[in-house]
């Protein structure tokens, strides 16, 4: 964050220098001869007096020379002149100090100063020299030694440079138009106090219409609303800085800015959760990215809103600082297939020094997709009671059962009788309709109640798990599931056999002849004596076999 603020301060400084330069404009080669200056000043500042030999300076204290002079002739800078010089050659001018004789030369007689070297202001902006005027014959000084400077005048010989470029910056997608992205700063080593050689103007060469740059400040801003990260997540901008206030003939430099769109506000995570997930399981983990370490990186997570408030809650993993989404209520794919939570992550400890740097929290959307778990068919009711007369012929319909597929697929159901519950094959069931019929003659006296188990399977699925949702409670409390039972739905059918001779009289002396119901074909038919009721008869039949 701070690195963004620093350059903008620099910009302010540069701008204020520009302002200064506009007040203190100087003219090129404003070489002033002493008499000219005296007149111009109108006897003002008392550095110089014609009457007094006590004057402190007889030389105009500043000369100018243009840098980067490339002409063949030595470049004229200015002239030393003493009022005592009558033009008769009696005065000898002497130059000493920085660059005297090497860079600057003086004509002893006329006082004319020239330079023979090409000067670079960016290397040395001014030279301090001393001037003397001596009597040619006696070599005694006619004037006090006077110090002056030669200032090297800037020309626009340096282009702006982006010292911090190329830039990488981030901005939240869908930011409003004008959102600040980054501030670019170019520097121009030309003299900022003179002319416009270092007066820069920024423009955008590439990146429109999405972004703009402020001409003076270099602040890059968004220029279009609704920039969608899903459509395009980064942009390459080319920003130019041009001196001479951006006018023709100014020098320019460019930099690139890579702008990444971030999804600060609508981060979205997707998880799938099997509907069979046990309550208090962790169903999703999210991690808030935080560059800090230690206590400063400790996070709190909470569910802001969404339709899963009563079904999930959030905790922080103390080791990883991840946000854990925990299931607190059983899921049912057939009731609700997806949940959406808006989740906030925030720093537990907030450093107030950095409050201005932005929010220390982030919001994300967590989507939880409930996965269907294949459940076996479910009978309703799970226990049915039926009755059939013992006189009913084979093939008589006793009743029917119905099971349904609790899964969304709604597969056709196939029925069967668990043969272990009807070893003697009294009953049959229609595979498709669930209609139960007798397959043998019944005998109430032999068996008044048949407890048969009916099975149901789905005909379109072959895989997987879990007990019937009729038994969901058991499963969700954590009983381990064995695959063998998984796909078969079961129901109990209790068939009572009704008696045709309900209150039949019993004659002890009278004998009836009948064939035992359970006699096999070809078996010897026995004559049984009926005496007191069915038990007697059963036992006799049993004995007879
Ligand atoms: C029928 O059999 C099942 C087991 O196959 C048993 O759980 C149930 O209690 C029995 N019902 C009756 C009425 O005997």
Automatic annotation (TrEMBL):
UniProt GO molecular function: beta-catenin binding; cadherin binding; calcium ion binding
The keyword Repeat appears for this protein: yes
A Pfam family assignment: Cadherin
First-listed, main subcellular location of the protein, grouped into a coarse class: membrane
InterPro entries (alphabetical): Cadherin, Cadherin-like_dom, Cadherin-like_sf, Cadherin_CS
GO biological process: adherens junction organization; calcium-dependent cell-cell adhesion via plasma membrane cell adhesion molecules; cell migration; cell morphogenesis; cell-cell adhesion mediated by cadherin; cell-cell junction assembly; homophilic cell adhesion via plasma membrane adhesion molecules
Subcellular location: Cell membrane
UniProt KW keywords: Calcium, Cell adhesion, Cell membrane, Glycoprotein, Membrane, Metal-binding, Repeat, Signal, Transmembrane, Transmembrane helix
Membrane topology designation: Single-pass type I membrane protein
GO cellular component: adherens junction; catenin complex
Gene3D superfamilies from the UniProt entry: Cadherins
Signal peptide: 1-24
Domain Cadherin: 82-162, 163-276, 265-379, 380-507
Keyword Transcription regulation: no
Protein's name according to its UniProt entry: Cadherin domain-containing protein
Gene: CDH6
């Amino acid at each position: 964050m701070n690195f963004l603020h620093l350059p903008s301060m620099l910009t302010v400084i540069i701008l204020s220098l520009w302002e200064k330069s506009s007040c203190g404009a100087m003219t090129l080669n404003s070489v002033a001869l002493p008499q000219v200056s005296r007149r111009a000043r109108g006897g003002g500042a008392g550095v110089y007096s014609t009457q007094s030999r006590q004057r402190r300076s007889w030389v105009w204290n500043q000369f100018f020379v243009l840098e980067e002079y490339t002409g063949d002739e030595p470049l004229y800078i200015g002239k030393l002149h003493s009022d005592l010089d009558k033009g008769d050659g009696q005065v000898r001018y002497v130059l000493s100090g920085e660059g005297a004789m090497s860079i600057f030369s003086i004509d002893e007689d006329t006082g004319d100063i020239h330079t023979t070297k090409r000067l670079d202001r960016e290397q040395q902006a001014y030279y301090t020299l001393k001037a003397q005027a001596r009597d040619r014959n006696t070599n005694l000084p006619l004037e006090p030694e006077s110090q002056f400077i030669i200032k090297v005048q800037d020309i626009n010989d340096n282009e702006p440079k982006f010292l911090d470029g190329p830039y990488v910056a981030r901005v939240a997608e869908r930011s409003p138009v004008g959102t600040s992205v980054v501030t670019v700063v170019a520097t121009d080593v030309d003299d900022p106090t003179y002319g416009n050689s270092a007066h820069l103007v920024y423009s955008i060469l590439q990146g429109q219409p999405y972004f703009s740059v402020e001409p003076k400040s270099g602040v890059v801003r968004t220029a279009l609303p609704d920039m969608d990260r899903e459509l395009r997540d980064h942009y390459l901008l080319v920003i130019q800085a041009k001196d001479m206030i951006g006018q023709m003939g100014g020098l320019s430099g460019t930099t690139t800015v890579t702008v990444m769109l971030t999804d600060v506000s609508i981060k979205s995570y997707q998880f799938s959760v099997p509907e069979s997930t046990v309550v208090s399981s962790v169903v999703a983990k999210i991690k808030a990215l935080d560059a800090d370490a230690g206590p400063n990186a400790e996070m709190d997570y909470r569910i802001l809103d969404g339709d899963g408030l009563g079904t999930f809650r959030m905790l922080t993993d103390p080791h990883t600082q991840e946000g854990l989404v925990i299931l607190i209520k059983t899921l049912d794919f057939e009731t609700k297939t997806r949940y959406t939570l808006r989740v906030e992550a925030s720093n537990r400890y907030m450093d107030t020094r950095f409050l201005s740097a932005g929010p220390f929290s982030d919001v994300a959307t967590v989507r939880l997709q409930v996965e269907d778990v294949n459940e076996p068919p479910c009978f309703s009711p799970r226990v049915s009671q039926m009755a059939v007369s013992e006189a009913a012929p084979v093939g008589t319909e006793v009743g029917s059962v119905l099971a349904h597929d609790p899964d969304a697929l709604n597969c056709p159901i196939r029925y069967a009788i668990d043969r272990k519950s009807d070893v003697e094959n009294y009953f049959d069931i229609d595979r498709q309709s669930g209609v139960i019929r007798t397959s043998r003659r019944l005998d109430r006296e032999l068996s008044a109640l048949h407890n048969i188990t009916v099975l149901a399977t789905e005909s379109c699925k072959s895989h997987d798990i879990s007990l019937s949702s009729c038994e969901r409670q058991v499963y969700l409390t954590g009983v381990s599931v064995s695959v063998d039972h998984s796909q078969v739905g079961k129901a109990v059918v209790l068939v009572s056999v009704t008696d045709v001779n309900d209150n039949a009289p019993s004659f002890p002396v009278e004998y009836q002849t009948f064939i035992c119901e359970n006699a096999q074909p070809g078996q010897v038919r026995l004559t049984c004596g009926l005496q007191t009721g069915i038990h007697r008869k059963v036992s006799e039949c049993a004995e007879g076999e």
